[in-house]
Amino acid sequence: MTSSTQTPFTTLPANREAVLRVMPMPADANIHGDVFGGWIMSQVDIAGSIPAARRAAGRVATVAVNAFQFKQPVFVGDLLSFYAAIVKTGTTSVTVSVEVYAERQRLDAEVVKVTEATLTYVATDEARRSRPLPIL
Ligand SMILES: CC(C)(COP(=O)(O)OP(=O)(O)OC[C@H]1O[C@@H](n2cnc3c(N)ncnc32)[C@H](O)[C@@H]1OP(=O)(O)O)[C@@H](O)C(=O)NCCC(=O)NCCS
């Protein structure tokens, strides 16, 4: 069956810089040998926190995972690129969209969008209380 979620991309997004690139190792696999979804979720959380912490000019805490979709499996040896963009800010919170692409470890250099997620981070102080975002 063919659907929009299964369409492979031939290149990484143009004019965008990945906030994180990483290659999963065998220790990151599930019992079937493919990459464990929880490992991908932790990497997405790290990737999303990068623009959030920049906007907050300091520490942030993840308060919510609003949406998370695994669109294609991830394999050991894929080169993953994480693209993160702020989609909303509030008084203390920053909501970030994260997209993950995999360069398969194949000679044809296939690129596939594997994951999409939206997470909300809250700017926190040294006592882990929420604090207002700095005014730009
Ligand atoms: C982050 C934390 C300090 C916020 O506490 P708080 O200030 O009392 O929380 P509030 O209810 O006032 O919400 C703060 C902001 O988060 C937003 N928020 C809270 N829950 C949310 C949710 N489920 N989805 C989206 N945004 C949410 C609020 O809308 C608010 O945003 P705004 O200030 O921009 O309007 C607290 O929830 C906490 O410590 N959570 C644990 C964080 C953590 O440890 N994360 C790591 C994973 S274990």
From TrEMBL:
Sections of the chain in a coiled coil: none
Protein species of origin: Achromobacter pulmonis
EC number(s) given by UniProt: 3.1.2.-
Presence of the UniProt keyword Metal-binding in the record: no
Protein name: Putative acyl-CoA thioester hydrolase
UniProt key word Hydrolase: yes
Molecular function in Gene Ontology: long-chain fatty acyl-CoA hydrolase activity
Pfam family name, one: 4HBT
Record's keyword terms, sorted: Hydrolase
Ranges of residues in domain HotDog ACOT-type: 14-127
Alphabetical list of Gene3D superfamilies matching this protein: Hotdog Thioesterase
Family: Belongs to the acyl coenzyme A hydrolase family.
UniProt record, GO biological process: acyl-CoA metabolic process; fatty acid catabolic process
